[in-house]
Design a protein that fits this description.
Number of strands: 8
Strand order of the largest sheet: 2-1-3-4-8-7
Low-confidence stretches: none
CATH architecture: 3-Layer(aba) Sandwich
Oligomer: single chain
Shape: globular
Distance between the termini: 34 Å
Number of domains: 1
């Protein structure tokens, strides 16, 4: 829930003109970040993309320091100079985000090669989208990872759209997992809105990769609730489609599942929600109270 409400707050702050630049938010894709974050081990590597706030938080990043970075404050993960697409924390194994589509795939492969060379038992995971599967870096990475049997998980968040282009119109195969056969690597497709399905798939993929049977391609079918970035009004898709996917909101699905099994009550949920909003409010206040980065102070 923290990821969802953090992103909602960021969206609100951008709309109000409180934050500069652009934003690529991940409402609707929370289950992929959380499922991956809990399945990987502490020393593993994660390489993110332009829509990476949730990926970062799921690896242990502090929401308040992410928010501080968005505000251009010195307490941010890049000291206020990197912004939304340029944050990293190597102590968490989080290798960073990147505004270049598919740009972190080779970085993750490099980390996986390092782990294999050192026989450390670590695994690297790269997040990327359906659009990135059309990039040369995707195919080059799969080829080299296959040749060297790297401990690498390639995790595709197929959210149905690459910017304003439907995946159906832009990808020459029905499912991106089919591309794995060309490189003779293992692949699996999962419901990306089911956090436990994601978790199980990454656990299994990690087992293969860590034991010299990698790389592994996982395609998680999900949906990008908002636009590609700030100002995108989603005129290329219908409101009916959005309403249909709203019924499969990952936070709602997991809440209902836990309630149905008796592991959660409505009162429990409301208490959790209160704590989440306190975290998000504290993150915003922390960012507002912080000192601007030196560059911003000199150029405001």
């Amino acid at each position: 829930m923290v990821i969802h409400h953090f992103e909602m707050r960021v969206d609100k702050l951008f709309a109000a003109g409180e934050l500069r630049g652009t934003s690529h938010l991940a409402m609707g894709q929370e289950a992929t970040a959380v499922g991956v974050g809990f399945a990987l081990q502490q020393g593993d590597y994660v390489a993110s993309n332009h829509r990476g706030h949730g990926h970062f938080m799921a690896r242990g990043a502090e929401p308040r320091r992410i928010m501080a970075e968005l505000f251009g404050k010195a307490d941010g993960y890049s000291k206020g100079l990197g912004g939304t697409q340029h944050m990293a924390d190597f102590s968490l194994g989080f290798l960073g985000m990147n505004g270049i589509t598919g740009g972190m795939l080779p970085v993750a492969a490099g980390a996986a090669f390092s782990a294999k060379y050192r026989k450390s038992g670590q695994v690297a995971l790269a997040f990327f989208g359906d659009g990135a599967s059309n990039q040369g870096t995707f195919h080059e990475t799969l080829n080299m990872a296959s040749i060297w049997a790297l401990p690498l998980i390639l995790f595709c968040e197929n959210n149905c759209y690459a910017m304003s282009s439907s995946t159906k119109d832009m990808v020459g195969v029905e499912d991106i997992v089919h591309r794995a056969c060309g490189y003779d690597i293992s692949a699996v497709m999962v419901d990306g809105n089911d956090v436990m399905a994601v978790y199980d798939a990454v656990i299994a993929g990690r087992e293969l990769a860590a034991n010299g049977k990698g790389p592994v391609l996982i395609e998680a079918k999900t949906y990008r609730v908002g636009g590609h970035s700030r100002g995108d009004m989603c005129v290329y898709r219908t409101r009916e489609e959005e309403a249909e996917w709203a019924l499969r909101d990952p936070v709602l699905l997991f809440k209902n599942k836990l309630i149905s099994t008796g592991e959660l009550t409505e009162n429990d949920y409301e208490q959790m929600l209160s704590e989440v909003m306190e975290t998000v409010n504290e993150a915003e206040q922390f960012a507002r109270d912080g000192e601007f980065a030196q560059y911003y102070t000199a150029n405001r």
